[in-house]
Amino acid sequence: MAMLEIDNLHAKIEGEEGREILKGLTLSVNPGEVHAIMGPNGSGKSTLSYILAGKEDYEVTDGSVTFEGEDLLEMEIDERAAKGLFLAFQYPIEVPGVATMTFLRSALNAQRKKRGEEEISTPDFLRLIRERAGGLGISQDMLKRGVNVGFSGGEKKRAEILQMAVLQPKLCILDETDSGLDIDALKVVSEGVNALRSPDRAMIVITHYQRLLNHIVPDVVHVMNKGRIVRSGGKELALELEANGYAEYQQDAA
Amino acid sequence: MNADIRPIRTPAEQALIAELDQLPSVNDRLGDLRLAAARSFEENGLPHRRVEEWKYTDLRTLMRDAVPVAGTAAVAEADARAKLLREVEARRIVVANGAVVPELSDFSALEEGLTLRSLADVIASGDDVAARIGGIVPGRYDAALALNTALAKDGVVLEVAPGAHIERPIHVVHVFAGSAPAASFARSLVVVGEGATLTYVESFEGPAGIAYQVNSATEFYVGDETHLDVVRLQEESASAIHLSTLLFEVGRRTQLHTFTFAMGAAVARTSLYATLSGEDSHIAFNGATLLKDRQHSDSTLFVDHKVPGCESRELFKTVLDDQSRGVFQGKIVVRQAAQKTDGRMMSRALVLGDDAEMDNKPELEIFADDVQCGHGATCGAIDDELLFYLRARGIPLKEAQSLLVQAFVGEAIETVEHDGLREALIACAEGWLKARA
What distance in Å separates the CA atoms of residue B347 and residue B318, rounded to the nearest whole number? Predict the structure, then answer.
């Protein structure tokens, strides 16, 4: 059984008349697979990630999303996270006054509680954080500061990957995790992501550029345009896109 | 004033005036002060919404009845009810129903340079310091203060000798004890000598479900080059009315920090008046207010810059749930002589309840031309983007709200310097949020 099954998904901005952003998107992701979704600006990539995470600004008008056999669209935002869905934000938000440590611990314990597991002990938690933060170059000082407050663009992305590494989700959705990263930071982030690849875990990597996919090598590449997946292929498809651009798909769809 | 459009006295005003009429005629300074305050109350009555300073706290409507003056509290009951900040290492003085309770108060082994007595004792002994009562005049009529001046008989008189550093905080525990509604009045005096340091704590509490009324006033004479921290926690019963006045006369090169934390009472009004009459002083008036149900809470500040070179900072945070109502009024006056004044005031409100209301009224009155003054007021709901981010990590809605509210209030509480007090206040905020979730 696929981990994530998106079938004929149609969606628009909540309360707005007319324009659909997703227009019949179908996608199936199995455990252990890494899927890349590429596409031009405005093709609906970020919208897809927000809808999967449960953002309330969108309205699904048709279709279904099934996550491990359950109707994902029926679940609360936090319930989705507890079930193992994680969205690494394109623009991680600053949360002044909530220390990263407090935030991570609250999130981890809330998820464990929802799954009927015990809260993590303080020593275990500290050990886990130390283990995961080191490899991502995240200092103790950053962990004590408010979530993402005063972090550079690259630090914010690394912090997202740390959250992912601590929460150990089943499905990771990386929304343009490469945007705003220099080559060194891209490497650190990619290594962080690759460390999390496992036969039980699936990933959806959303990006404009092929560059990221040199580091995080996908099993499947999808081209998204105008709210639909218009072509799927192997990792070589990304190279083709890099060479030719999206023009032919935009013409096809028009 | 608009006496002509307020022809009838409310039952509360009638009862208070009857009480004032029974004041004994004592022919001394304090006696005269009391009678003058009583007369001014009889003339003006309780303030209402047409009195600008009480525009959003119409006390005439909110305080329907006056209750009889409270009798002496039972010691055991007062002790049992005085729970706030017990975990903080401090010298505790208990004031129950407006009177110092010697059995529950620690007057022993006073630090060198510290003089601590009850106001009743000071008056009885004829000590000179009593002449300082009523010495700080707010510059405008204040009904709550007038009633306090007329009716308060006891409280704490605390003097710190010049140069003395009192490490251990002094905690004045105001508690109401009794099973019937009654009114208590307490008047305190704090005199901090030149170069001295002090942390002064006031807390207020009482039994749930009893509509008691508390009126407290404290005058602070803050000498030159002193460092005074004042921390105040108001957690009266949700049926109570709490009126309090803090008055500060601030000397030269002084550091004065206050933090007022209000969570209790059906109706609360706290007024802070500060006169900066010595150059190069720094004052910070910060506060946090957490409200729910139909609570009404008002923080009103009046800072008067009379001399050059002083800095004043105000940061107030208010969280409003349900149908509660919060009021912040802050006025900074900069006199013509007070050049190089730097005054900044900020009030931020976070509205959780759909029917809650916040009224912000900042006022600046500037007569000097070389000053920096600013004020800001914000009022809004919890940011949806922040909530989404927290929830997307698995934190349920209520818990996410709690974390964000705590962060919001935390910014103000963090300004409390004393570690134990700061932690205790953070715990109070956490308790409030837990009760909500």
Answer: 8
* Tokens 């010691």 found at: B75
Find where tokens 């550079």 sit.
A152
Nearest alpha carbon to residue B204 among B293, B104, B84, B92: B84
Question: What are the tens digits of pLDDT across the range B390-436?
Answer: 999 999 999 999 999 999 999 999 999 999 999 999 999 999 999 98
B350: three-class secondary structure by DSSP: strand
pTM, two decimal places: 0.89
Q: Please tell me which of the candidates B388, B399, B410 has its beta carbon nearest to residue A55.
A: B388
Could you report how far apart the first and last alpha carbons of chain A are, in Å?
34
User: How many angstroms away from the CA of A127 is the closest CA of chain B?
Assistant: 20
| Residue found by looking up tokens 């491990």 in the block | A68
The runs of H, that is alpha helices, within A76-152 are 77-83, 100-114, 122-135, 140-144
Determine contact, residues B256/B281, Cβ cutoff 8 Å.
yes
Helix runs in B96-152, H state only = 119-125, 143-151
Cα angle value B250/B256/B259 (rounded, 5°): 130
Does B411 contact A97 at a Cβ distance shorter than 8 Å? yes
Q: Is the pLDDT assigned to residue B248 strictly greater than 90?
A: yes
φ, ψ for residue A98, nearest 5 deg: -110, 105
Determine contact: A93 vs chain B, CB below 8 A: yes
Query: What are the distances in angstroms from CA B245 to CA A51, A136, A249, B138, B408?
Result: 53, 54, 72, 10, 26
Tell me whether residues B391 and A77 touch, CB distance under 8 A. yes
CB-CB contact of B169 with B199 (8 Å) = yes
Q: Is the dihedral of CA B19, B20, B22, B24 positive or negative?
A: positive
Cα-flanking dihedrals φ and ψ of residue A199, to 5°?
A: -60, -20
**CB–CB of B229/B198 below 8 Å?**
yes
Q: What is the pLDDT of residue B250?
A: 97
User: Nearest to residue B312, comparing CAs of B340, B271, B337, B288?
Assistant: B340
Q: How confident is the model at residue A180 (pLDDT cuts 50, 70, 90)?
A: confident
SS3 assignment, position A216 = coil
- Intra-chain end-to-end CA distance of chain B, in Å: 46
CA distance linking residue A172 with residue A133, whole number of Å = 18
pLDDT at A251: 66
Is the sign of the CA dihedral A86, A90, A92, A93 positive or negative? negative
Residue A175 · residue A85 · CB < 8 Å: no
Place of tokens 């509290």: B73
Q: How far is CA B405 from CA A97, B7, B289, B382, B399, in A?
A: 9, 45, 12, 8, 10
Helix H or strand E segment including B246: strand B241-250
A154 burial via Cβ count (<10 Å: 0-12, 13-18, 19+): middle
Closest CA to B316 of B419, B384, B415: B415
* Rounded CA separation A96/A99 (Å): 8
Q: Is A103 in contact with B394 (Cβ distance < 8 A)?
A: no
pLDDT tens by residue, A72-118: 999 999 999 999 999 999 999 999 889 999 999 999 999 999 999 99
